[in-house]
Write a structure and sequence with these properties.
heterodimer; A: about 110 residues; mainly alpha; elongated; B: alpha/beta; seven-stranded mixed beta sheet; 8 helices; 7 strands; about 40% helix; globular
Chain lengths: ~110, ~230
């Protein structure tokens, strides 16, 4: 039941990225990234038992879904970090623009 | 030939102090540059009345960003020595000759004012014994800086250093960044004692004036910069 629900959610996300691609609201790179991401997530759900076995080799006692949760948290951390770097870059660009304008006005 | 000395004063909502600060420094330097960092009070109007050069940031970008803008302007106007000075009145203008002297004599290329080499600064005990030692440790661990004042904002550099110095930290973390980058450019660095008057300003642990200030924000910026650079 849980597996089916997870697969339906993933199918929803897949449809969404295809729609976004059609509307050209995401770039090719982003489309490929999210396509691979959700396909891998779908595969992980389908092969949850194998994942159970695999993660047990590393000492995780819980079910495979727990391992997926850990991965999701790691992924979220990574995403937040990437966003932070992106914001930092934009901040620096804003400063450059503000500086350029201020120096031109006084030049 | 006499060296041209510029004083860069970043200002953010300093209408109560800016006039007095300009008056106090003008006899010690050749040109004053006020970099208004997006103030929404009368800072610009007051500074312009004092017939000083005023560069205006359209929006608040932080003290580090304002200093970098000032450095570029000073270099474009053939500055030989650049002094960084605060607009809130905490520094004493009469310390300017002390801070530029080692540069004028060729003994140093960069001079940092230190509150800790003089016993006259009324640094609050919490800041002196808790915050500053921690800041010093952070500076040393993250950037390898060994100077006595971890947040020295009163400094002088010659034009060679200014031309090579790219301040990328827009906020208050620029203090550590400048010390670090200057030490990579030259080893002719001096520290001189200065006196700082603490009133109801300066930055606390959680907040300060303008963008990117506050002790924790400085720490966060330094660590983040270290990771991504």
């Amino acid at each position: 039941m849980q597996q089916t629900l997870a697969l339906i959610i993933i199918a929803g996300f897949l449809m969404r990225i295809f729609r976004q691609k059609q509307k050209k609201s995401i770039s090719n790179k982003e489309f490929i990234f999210w396509l691979i991401f959700w396909l891998l997530a779908g595969l992980a759900i389908l092969f949850i038992k194998q994942i159970d076995y695999f993660v047990s080799l590393f000492g995780f006692g819980g079910q495979g879904i727990d391992a997926l949760l850990y991965l999701a948290v790691i992924f979220l951390f990574y995403t937040v970090f990437k966003l932070r770097v992106h914001i930092e870059k934009q901040d620096k660009n804003i400063t450059k623009i503000v500086r350029e304008i201020s120096l031109k006005k006084n030049g | 030939m006499a060296k041209k000395i510029f004083c860069i004063i970043p200002a953010y909502n300093e209408e109560n102090n800016i006039a007095a600060v300009i008056e106090s420094v003008k006899s010690f330097i050749d040109e004053i540059i006020i970099v208004d960092d997006g103030s929404f009070d009368n800072t610009v109007r007051i500074a312009q009345k004092k017939s000083t050069a005023v560069i205006k940031h359209l929006i608040n970008r932080g003290q580090g960003a304002a200093l970098m803008t000032g450095n570029i302007y000073a270099l474009e106007n053939e500055a030989d020595v650049i002094v960084h000075f605060d607009a809130d009145g905490q520094f004493r203008a009469k310390d300017i000759p002390k801070i530029i002297k080692p540069i004028l004599s060729g003994e140093a290329e960069a001079v940092f004012g230190s509150r800790f080499l003089s016993k006259k600064s009324n640094i609050p005990a919490f800041k002196r014994f808790i915050i500053m030692p921690l800041a010093r440790a952070v500076n040393y661990i993250i950037l390898g800086i060994k100077l006595s004042d971890p947040q020295a904002g009163f400094r002088a550099i010659n034009s060679r250093i200014a031309a090579e110095l790219n301040i990328t930290n827009d906020g208050a973390a620029h203090c550590s960044e400048i010390m670090h980058k200057v030490s990579e450019i030259t080893d002719k660095i001096r520290e001189v004692p200065i006196v700082v008057n603490y009133n109801n300003f300066g930055q606390g642990i959680f907040s300060g004036r303008g963008r990117g200030s506050g002790g924790l924000r400085v720490l966060k910026d330094l660590i983040f910069q270290k990771i991504i650079s």
